[in-house]
Amino acid sequence: MDVSSHGTGDRATTAEVAQEDGLGALRDRALQAAGTATVVLDASQDVPTVVWVNDAFVHLFGHPSDALVGGTLARLAPAGGGVLDGGRLAASLADRTPVVWTARSVRADGSVLWCEYSAAVVPGGETPGAHWVILVSDVTRHVEQREEQERSIAVERAARTTLDLISLVSDLLTDLDYPYVLREIATHLQRGLVGWAGFFLDDAGLRHAEGIAVNPGTERTSYRLAREAGVHVDALGDARAPGESTGVTMTTAFIDPLRDLLDGHVSGPLSFALRPDYPAGSAARWLSVEMRTRLGLPDATETDGSAAGTAHDPAVPSVVVSAVPGRRRVLGILVTLPTGPVAGARGVAGTDPTTMTLLHVVARRVGMAIDNVRLYAREHQLAETLQRSMLPEQADIPGLDVWTYYAPTSEHAQVGGDWYDVLHIDEQVAGLVIGDVVGHDVEAAATMGQLRSVVRSYAFELATPGPVLTRVDQLVVGMRVPRSASLVYATLRRPAPDATTPAWRLEYSRAGHLPPLLVRDGDVSQLSGAGGALVGYGTGDRQTASVELLPGDALVLYTDGLIERRDRSLRAGLAALVTAAERVTATDAAGIGEELLARLADAPEDDVAVVVVRVPDPGTDGTTAVMSPRSRRWLLPSEPASIGRARHAVVRTCRTWELPDVANAELVVSELVANGVLHGWGHIALRLFDTGDGLRIEVEDSNPSPPVTTDGHANRLGGYGMQIVERLADWGWRPSGTGKLVWAKIRTSGTLRRS
């Protein structure tokens, strides 16, 4: 029993062993024939070595098994790379968790493929963890697809970023009044696209620009060269140092790449090295110094050695310079520093093509916007110049106190259908014209300009108002003027030297216009004689009426805009004007006009023109109590004679208001009006206000540039005007419409500033 039992147990064990050996052989054959490349490594060595590979592994990499067994997987790694890091992999497999990674590998024929490696520890054995099994899969197609997808996403992202930035630039350029629009665009370019960006406009020389100057500088070429060479100049372009010249000796051997780009000889973009050795006076030298300063680079004088900072120095940074093109010329440049370290970035070579395309588009859009805004400004300025040439004018008439006022209702035009003229016909005769063309649009203004020229021509040819209007009728019929108009033409003849009564003789003729008013000692008379049809509708000779103006009398000529309102008839408006004129207490023409405007012109619905002529009365002027508004205004032509008129107006007003420091006020207004005449354009508006503690002077012109305080001109006279104003008054300025308003508050004698 025991023997048989023992024999039976031995036979069972032998069968199990045989069965297990058969399964092991089956596993070996299965792994050898498996389609997944498999390798077993001996991890007990310092460098894991191959102990077994299957046929799929051999087929995948092309190496025979005997060449692989005993070696390492290093032969599968590309140059400079590795398939696995034994030490790191051992640490990862320490907890018996499989590890998967992807690595770039090389076949026996040198072709490259991407493989996914999945490693696990082989359990059992005398030394646990001594062997690793790694399954290898060819994932080249998946990796390439992923890379292609990533590239597509990157391209799409870059395109979206480009479109977003272009859209943002377009949005910013819609608000060209924003003074920092170019700085905003440069800031957005610096957000991940370039290391630094900035615009430089070529307005008579390169200038760093944060906004778009509507009226670019028109300095002479010597001023541009002087500034680019570092010669210090004042606000008017003159050298600051006595005896210093703004002329610069230019070298002819150097070809300035920036000047070629700005002059349109090359299209760019340029790779511009920020070298310090460009010739003085060149645009390249100026931009190099400017950029080195803005980037915080050491100045050329701080470098040591003759070779430092030359074109061959690899530490010299380069920037990309793109032209900002306009319709007819290059308006400036866009300078960008490629991303990366400042030193070693080599211009266009350091900027990818997508970024270069974007910079090109941005530069073109900015150039188009600059061109458009400046073209509009030029056309607007031309239109304003034409309008200003049509504005009413007032000549100085010795012996008469004359005040005029004009205000068109249009918000977009300086002129309308109303006009006036005060003409100095000869030493004995002055001419007065006031007229009104139907409407207050552009056509009305054009008609006004025609009629004004015609009346002025005949006024200087004929002496009597009636014949003047008769000739005007005849010419207007032939001109086929599209709008009807009314007017009053009057002449004032100076009294003879031997006359017993110093009365001026007024002759006038009316062509469908409202009657002038004669104000005498509080009584108002309507001068309704010599009436007739509208201009061009007269059927015969025009009549002439006359009246004498005595000292203290005032004549008021006006258009219907002063009295016409929707809520009352024209007759009621005329009655209101007569009542207002009867209550006038002022003894100067400007005061009379201000009182009438204060009572009647608070909300005009049409163009308003007013002319007040007063014959001074030395006997009563200055002794009559005045209750008129303590404000005055005048519209002066931009000519030197206006300086004297402004001084006389201030002196007369200060005496009427009994204000002190008349000489100081006269000097301040003289300087302010002189600045408007010399440096401004268009008519000059002068306003005076009694603030209760002194005189406030306001001077307005059409030049938007602020006044500049200088220390005089080193090489010529002048330049101290605003210093005089600053010593005598508190002053300031503010934008006003298309120009500026400069104000000055006269200080009392005890509060003057000392130099």
TrEMBL record:
Coiled coil ranges (UniProt) are: none
The alphabetized UniProt keywords are:
Hydrolase
Alphabetized Gene3D superfamilies for the sequence:
Histidine kinase-like ATPase, C-terminal domain, PAS domain, PPM-type phosphatase domain
Q: Where is the PPM-type phosphatase domain?
A: 400-615
**Gene Ontology molecular functions:** phosphatase activity
Q: Which InterPro entries match?
A: Bact_Sigma-Reg (IPR052016), HATPase_C_sf (IPR036890), HATPase_dom (IPR003594), PAS (IPR000014), PAS-like_dom_sf (IPR035965), PPM-type-like_dom_sf (IPR036457), PPM-type_phosphatase-like_dom (IPR001932)
Does the keyword Hydrolase feature in the UniProt annotation?
A: yes
Give the matching SMART domains: PP2C_SIG
Q: Which CDD domains does UniProt cross-reference here?
A: HATPase_RsbW-like, PAS
Top-rank taxon: Bacteria
Q: What protein name is recorded for this chain? A: SpoIIE family protein phosphatase
Tell me the organism: Sanguibacter suaedae
